[in-house]
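Q: Sequence in, structure out?
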Amino acid sequence: MFSENDKISIRQLQALLILDLFGTGVVTLPRQTVNVAGNDAYIAVLLGSIIMAVFTLVFTILGQRYTNKTVVEISQMLLSRPVGLLLSLGLAIKIMIGAGLELRIFCEMIGQSMLFRTPIFITALAMLLICSYVSAIGYECRARTGEILFVFVFVPFLILMFLAIFTADYSNLRPVLSHSTSDIAKGMWYTILSFQGLEFLFLVFPYLQCPKRAKKGMLQAGLIIAFFMTLITLLTIAVFGQYSVTNKLFPVLQMMDSLQLPGSFLDRQDIFMLWFWVVSIFASVSAALFFVTILFERIQQNKNKKIPARKWMLFVMVIVFLVAILPQDVASTHEYMERLKKYGGTFYILILPVVLFVIDNIKRRKQV
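A: Exactly. Output:
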């Protein structure tokens, strides 16, 4: 953005996508799916996440066809300039609101577990300043940071998952397929909507070194996310049982805290999950700052008088900060987040890419 080092590799994009998509979804998804699918929630998560992993191919194919363009230019070419601009502006608003709500949930969790007396606005501002600095340096900086953090995050995470596998009570998963198909379908729907951040694929292809190789890499990243989301949901049910999971606001964090590392000097193992979550929120919020700034820059690209990128970044920071501090409590924040997923997520993650893909195919056939 403010530098010329904005080309990243497919491997770096995979690391960023995995970190961006986990966020609050991995922490709250087990409770949401268990509420509707019971002890079959892990089946719903598996099916829903596989669908979304395959669905990344729609974004990837569009991106490979227009490697130097984002959704701003693609939507204008396929749907007309006014419609494209309106859709691009709506996407920018959706991303800013989503980032603000995720930041607020993060601040609430940190306040409940670590920084008990720190005001929410202090935690939110500190995270925003760090994210804005990394975003302002350039996309490659985000990619290299994400690549490094990916290793430090997943090593302890895998250790805890390995421990949970051998300490969980798998009788809590019985009986299998005890819920109706409609209940499992509802759980799949919650899983699909939890993939907030997938819309970043609308914007990333101009920054790839080898966009033609992205299809396999994005599918691999989606399947990795599907595997871990399913494993986390299954282990959470196995550790607590379906009835206990529904009564816990952050069951994954509480599951991590209940694990006992043999010979460990650590009193709280959930610190690893909190670290994982901190990195995920850092990745998603910094991505939001970067891409929304890019959106605004590309929306105004035909105007004679352009607003500098730094001013757009400052504007986006202010909006995200206000969204983060305005909800009264964590319950209101979750309610707003669910509405955003239901309407904004459904449109920009499911409907719009399919519409653009279909229209693009129709126009290509007419040209043949």
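The mean pLDDT is 83.
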